Amino acid sequence: MWPDRRLCDLLEIEHPIIQAPMAGSATPALAAAVSNAGGLGSLGCGASSAEEVRELVARVRSGTNRPFNLNFFAHAAPSTPPEVLARARERLQPFAEALRVALPETLPDLPAGFDEATLSLVLELRPPVVSFHFGMPEAAAIEALKDLGIVLLATATTVAEARRLAAAGIDVVVAQGYEAGGHRGSHQPSAPADGIGTMALVPQVVDAVPVPVVATGGIGDARGIVAALALGASGVQLGTSFLVCPEAATEPARRAAILAASDVDTMVTEAVSGRAARAKRSRYALEMARSSEPLPAFPQLYALTSPLLAAAAGRGTDDVGFQLYGQAAASSRALPAAEIVQRLVAETAELTARLAAAARSS
Predict the structure, then answer these.
(1) Packing angle between helix 28-36 and helix 50-63, nearest 10 degrees?
(2) Which of 155, 154, 146 is CA-nearest to residue 126?
């Protein structure tokens, strides 16, 4: 059925459908269900401690004996100038006063996203697949992972990033379009208005690199899958579609927002995490977007915004929020993960056959 088997053969999966990692929302139960259904289940580990990652891996392995993916952030160690912190605190202070919370005076010192300790952990756990967001690790880390037979994926948001990944030995490029929910995986922080749509990005990446390309961003049903394959992608990655599965750890407010979503619900903002991310519109994000002043680096900005998010959630207001989901949210179906994969496969086959029949009769 699948016109390009490279991704399936490389990952040892039946269907070229990857469940996006979605740190904090993707659970071992979700990843195992997708993998058992023939796709590739994923776990977002970028915000997890070593012990948490070990527990996640043990739980997913107890639920499936099929390949799964661990995803890590590959950003540099964050550094925020004092004057940027001071100005950010000024801008956030009205929201803090309205919510009756105090903002911290300093930001935490944080390591790079994929440091030596994380590499050692992954080499110990030996997952079948590892993926990277916000770039990739150093050459020595890539070599060490590949020496163990681990298949490596990484996100690209431009053709130049895709070429860099392929040249470094990354096995699969995930071409992320502007429509995608969650954080944009650009290798350097980029402005919210930057970005290339999936329809434009995928064929250019396919033409630029010799490795399989996975399309992601705005793909929510079989029509999106068929379109991605027609553009030359070897497979697709879906995130928002899996957020409303019963196996996902999606908070109730975001789950309800996705199920009631329209095409204009979301915007791209850097005002919560310090990196461009697509989320449901909020008064906070809209007001912060009125100025292009620098903000604290990712993920240090969370030290300032997390108290606001927690207070707003406690009061039941969405003036300050960070509900991450993509522009195709209206296609989401509240079904078990395995059923979503099965329906996507069946509907893709049906649509492909219908298009082929139409072409023969024309």
Answers:
(1) 40
(2) 146
d(CA 108, CA 139): 28
Q: pLDDT tens digits for 48-93?
A: 999 999 999 999 999 999 999 999 999 999 999 999 999 999 999 9
Domain boundaries, the chain: 1-76+112-250+332-362, 79-110+251-327
- DSSP 3-state of 154: strand
CA pair distance 248, 229, nearest whole angstrom:
27
- Residue of 189, 129, 130 lying closest to 157 (CA atoms): 189
Query: What is the pLDDT averaged over residues 130-137?
Result: 98
From the list 256, 173, 183, the residue with the least C-alpha distance to 21 is: 183
Complete edge-to-edge strand list for the sheet that includes strand 129-133: 17-19, 235-238, 213-216, 172-176, 151-156, 129-133, 68-73, 41-44
Please give the average per-residue pLDDT across 156-160, as a whole number. 98
Bridging pattern class, strands 266-269 and 172-176: unpaired
d(CA 263, CA 206): 27
Q: For residue 45, what pLDDT is reported?
A: 97
Cis peptide before 81 (omega within 30 of 0): no
Q: To which residue do tokens 């991605």 refer?
A: 228
Amino acid 79: pLDDT: 96
For domain 1-76+112-250+332-362, give the CATH number. 3.20.20.70
Paired with 214 in beta bridges are 174, 235
Local structure of residue 18 (DSSP, 8 states): E
- Whole-model pTM? 0.97
Amino acid of residue 314:
G
User: Which distant-in-sequence residues (6+ apart) come within 8 Å of 188 by Cβ?
Assistant: 135
CA–CA distances in Å: residue 264 to residues 52, 250, 319: 36, 21, 17
